[in-house]
């Protein structure tokens, strides 16, 4: 049984889906007290999965207390409450649910813009206070006004489409979107400065990144058109709130609608929280029944797929692999991991590696295959738990450079993976592998010697001078020690040869030493390929 903790008032759909597998036990914990990372650290140890929204901060220290954690599911989009680097190093997959709350957040943005334009929250408060302030609470029309969208991603696009329906002129700034893509949405892409200077309303839809934190500050506020109105349903840190307060006080900014805060919940005594021209919602962008069911369902299905079948979908720290792709990739993942494990156990050190993917395998998603290969290779050099997620990060930590090439054609085999260790004098420094009949992994070359070896279990790898006597000698030594030989695979080139011997029980060092005693034997290593 796997154990998953669900937090942050997620839709009950998530629990239902996880429990319906019959293999996942669920604990729902919406307790405010346990959202303190120090308190949560005391509880998380036994869990394999953690499902959160924005309320739980998944810190490095918390992850240190989570030895069993394999997957974190974010039922939403922004993963800035999760220490991604620390999760990746620990080999934990972090998944989100893109698209699940996009429409809802876009609609909330439009609601905020309308409420801001017509002072609806202020008018409600005024009436509740027994006043009738028609003159004071007059608003602005939005028809014909220019809406500037910062970040033309999923939500930005929903907002653009709705705003055009409201007869606004829509412009956008997004350095990662092409003019053609924007033109298809009838949106004019402009430079940031132009957006600031010409928009009547500016709405923010960027993720929280180093480059987007404080994107709206005293300098950029000063570049805005006088009377501009701002809407922020992205992340609180994108606006420097003190600078915004100053711009509101001076009258340069006519109003702001804010859903997200640098610290949530915000301190109600902050000057901006009391400003009459600012309206607020408590991070409600994604909070509709529909969106919450969508994201809860997505995240529960994705977490189930990973925990039970190893399928990775919508991971933010690993390439996604669908169920169908996984079926085609699985034999290559196995092969690559065994190739890596073989080389890792044959050599004493690894510097840089080159991995060539040739033929059919090159048409698949090769990044996960590289991770599998690195997992096998580095497993021999580290005591840290290593898996597909953290393999590349651990390689980078060790300063190992990885060069990957793909070529669609391969003369002799339909698929071939070649691993070469660079910058080493050790031999062998190369291994090639392929898949037979779409499932069976084979090593077909070690060093410069071609052979045909089934990589499994304990194997003795012998490099020798190609002279008579080796097979008999190895057979006699192993026989004397009651070690059964499963397969004996040979290959040679010119005067040297390689033997791969699958043995049913591992040999101890004294047995290997006896094999080494024949002078024509150059090296003897035992590897374990699982
Ligand atoms: N208020 C709420 O409840 C919710 C807030 N969000 C926030 O909204 C953000 C956006 O969500 P999506 O549209 O789904 O993400 P997305 O990834 O589809 O779009 C983000 C866009 O921002 C652009 N971008 C990145 N850096 C930029 C920069 N420096 N300047 C301009 N554009 C830049 C990207 O190119 C991308 O097109 C999320 O990251 C999340 O933080 C998301 C859902 C609900
Ligand atoms: O999906 C996102 O990025 C959101 O900000 C939504 O946050 P929530 O799940 O409502 O706490």
From TrEMBL:
Highest taxon listed in the record's lineage: Bacteria
Top EC class, one word: oxidoreductase
Gene Ontology MF terms in the entry: NAD binding; phosphoglycerate dehydrogenase activity
Enzyme Commission number(s) of this protein: 1.1.1.95
The keyword Oxidoreductase is annotated on this UniProt entry: yes
Keyword Amino-acid biosynthesis: yes
One GO term (biological process): L-serine biosynthetic process
Domain ACT, first and last residues per copy: 459-529
Catalytic reaction equation(s): (R)-2-hydroxyglutarate + NAD(+) = 2-oxoglutarate + NADH + H(+); (2R)-3-phosphoglycerate + NAD(+) = 3-phosphooxypyruvate + NADH + H(+)
PANTHER family reported for this sequence: FORMATE DEHYDROGENASE 1, HYDROXYPYRUVATE REDUCTASE
Family: Belongs to the D-isomer specific 2-hydroxyacid dehydrogenase family.
Name of the protein: D-3-phosphoglycerate dehydrogenase
